[in-house]
Amino acid sequence: MFEGRNDLEKRLVKKLQNYNNPNTLFFVLCDQDLENCVELKNRLKQKCINAGKPDAIIRIACRSIESFYLGDISSIGRAYGVSLQSHQEKAKYRSPDELNYPAQTLKELVPQFHKILGARIIASELDLTKSKSKSFSHFITALQHAIAICKAQGKE
User: Fold this and answer.
1) pLDDT at 85
2) Is 92 a residue whose pLDDT tops 90?
3) Which residues contact 139 (CB under 8 A, 6 or more apart)?
4) What percent of the chain has pLDDT above 90?
């Protein structure tokens, strides 16, 4: 775990180098924020290569991980015990990856939302098949693909 993207970029190489289990597949998930997605992904990929982990899978949450949650507004409602279903079809929420400040948007929907605790609360409610967040769908697809490869190789 890292404390934000700056910490991730500063300590990623050392963390990966210090992890010595050869059967480990690394996923690096990072918020895009307002940065160029391709440049960020390439920079993180190079850090993984420098650390000797070229097979690490990099996924970028467009704009931030809160977009993942906003892709399934009903999960937020279930997590916080409020009705938000009517919001999912509003234009603002149809493409949550395009929101510039999804954490702020989430806080508007659920004022008691806090990033770390909120992530834990909402995560157990997310429907992996119904998200309107394309970056979340790409992340889930990458996880499913990695799991299938590991199973095929007998690494469960």
Assistant:
1) 80
2) no
3) 29, 59, 61, 68
4) 74
Contact 93, 132 (CB under 8 A): yes
Closest by Cα among 83, 7, 82, 21 to 53: 21
Q: What is the pLDDT of residues 17-27, one digit of tens each?
A: 999 888 888 99
Are 118 and 106 spatial neighbours (Cβ–Cβ below 8 Å)? yes
Amino acid at 137: S
Write the CB contacts of 76 (distance below 8 Å, at least 6 apart in sequence). 69, 70, 82, 84, 106, 109, 110, 122, 125
Per-residue HEC secondary structure of the chain comes to CCCCHHHHHHHHHHHHHHCCCCCCCCEEEEECCCCCHHHHHHHHHHHHHHCCCCCCEEEEECCCCHHHHHCCHHHHHHHHCCCCHHHCCCHHHHCHHHCCCHHHHHHHHCCCCCHHHHHHHHHCCCCCCCCCCHHHHHHHHHHHHHHHHHHHCCCC
Q: What is the pTM of this model?
A: 0.85
Contact 41, 9 (CB under 8 A): no
